[in-house]
Amino acid sequence: MKWLYRCPACGAEYEIEPGRYLCDHCSQENRPGIPLQGVLECVWKDEPGKTDGCAACGPVDAAGASEGSACQGILLPVEAEFFPKIPVGDTPLWAPERLRESLGMPNLWLKDDTCNPSGSYKDRASWLVAAFAKKHGISEIALASTGNAASSMSCIGAAAGLRITVFLPKAAPVAKRIQVLQYGAELREVDGTYDLAFDQSIEYSRATGVLSRNTAYNPLTIEGKKTASFEIARKLGAQAATGVCLAPDHIFVPTGDGVILAGVIKGFEDLLRCGCVNRMPKFWVCQAEGSSAIVRAMQTGVFEARPSSTIADSISVDVPRNGSFVLAKLGKHESEGVMASDSEILAAQLMLSSQSGLFAEPSSACAFACFLKARKAIRPEETVVVMLTGSGLKDIAGAERALGLAK
Ligand SMILES: *Cc1c(COP(=O)(O)O)cnc(C)c1O
Predict the structure, then answer these.
(1) Which residues are near ligand 1 (CB < 6 Å)?
(2) pLDDT tens by residue, 262-289
(3) Structure pTM?
(4) Is the terminal CB of the chain with fewer CB neighbours within 10 Å at N or C?
(5) Would you say 362 and 395 are in contact if contact means Cβ atoms under 8 Å apart?
(6) Fold type of domain 122-221
(7) CATH class of 93-117+225-402
(8) pLDDT for 144-154, tens place per residue?
């Protein structure tokens, strides 16, 4: 399979090679305060052969047994042999009995990405970036993060033997900072916001030539995040005993920069292109009221920079880096934006923990809160997946507030 980067805005194509991040033409429009312009997409040239099962993830057997992460390397732009041997992805899809009953929604599912090695969805992207580094003999990676991308890249880097330098705002939750140090990465604390950390880390990568894993800036971060869609489609197909992949009717995705969302959409686009699913789900864009640039732009068509403020630190961004890219993608499919307030997020976190046994951090709880707000528009028998992206243990201060214990 021949893979390339393509600019969705102007169609320019580039080799997937070290040093290539943005489109040469469209990136000239970049300026402070707007989403990144010239974000590239991974595309493959030749048509994959249609198989009896699923070209993305191999045949689904009737019992639904999945043989490890069969997807990796088949529909990804780096060959399987370069992926560090650390169990990323293939995360469980929960059938939350008590929630199904209390909400009257028998086809509600929770995609539990809290059980990735570093405790978040970010590991999917870090894994692909690490594989790319291994393939090209690169030994150091730098990135900015609100916390989870840093702990994730540090974790995968430890498994792969890569040097990791992270730029992290001082206000990041302590657990995420401790993870970075435990995994042996170099921590550069930034006296300011994530947006400042982002700029500083890009400057560092430019000056040193170190590979950047900055979200959206490195196109592999989007591509790596598509694999959850393969897993969801495979598991839903297996449990419906159709023997093929199945797309859910609805999927709720917590959204900050919009990279997870773009990855999830790309995953289903790939499945559709391969003929593994016959339709797309409806994508629900879930944001906190205090950090809602993408949802607002879905309504107005323009990005308006506003300082963000929400308890859900992982989805707190002033300028969504992948905003322009994902807005174009959303326009091609059925989608809708929802927002939740901090108190709705904390109430949803508690409800999720106490009625399902899944303790997720506030950003993930935001997706669940948005689902609770949107469910009036969903028929009870429809299939709904809520994407739970980070462990509740990563932000104990937030969880304390949900319990009314915080001072
Ligand atoms: C990063 C992150 C998100 C949001 O992902 P974006 O790509 O920034 O939209 C959601 N949940 C968790 C736990 C995260 O770490």
Answers:
(1) 120-122, 148, 215, 254-261, 314-315, 361, 363-364, 389-390
(2) 999 999 999 888 888 889 999 999 999 9
(3) 0.94
(4) C
(5) yes
(6) Rossmann fold (3.40.50)
(7) alpha beta
(8) 998 999 999 99
